Amino acid sequence: MMRKSRGFEGELIIEVPKIAITNCEELPLIRSLFISRMGFYPKALHHYYQRPGGISQVILLYCTDGKGWIQIQDENITVHAGEIIVIPTGIPHSYGADSKNPWSIYWFHLNGSQGNEAAYAIMGAENQNFQPIQVGFSDERNVIFKQIATTFLKGYSAANLLLANLSLPYYLSTFIAPEFFSRQNGVTTHVSATDRAVKFMQENLSRAITLDNIAQSAHLSISFFSRKFKQDTGYTPIEYFNHLRIQKGCQLLHFSDLRINEVASQIGIDDPFYFSRLFKQQMGVSPVNYRKNKGIDLH
Question: N or C: which end of the chain has fewer CB atoms below 10 A?
Answer without folding.
Answer: N
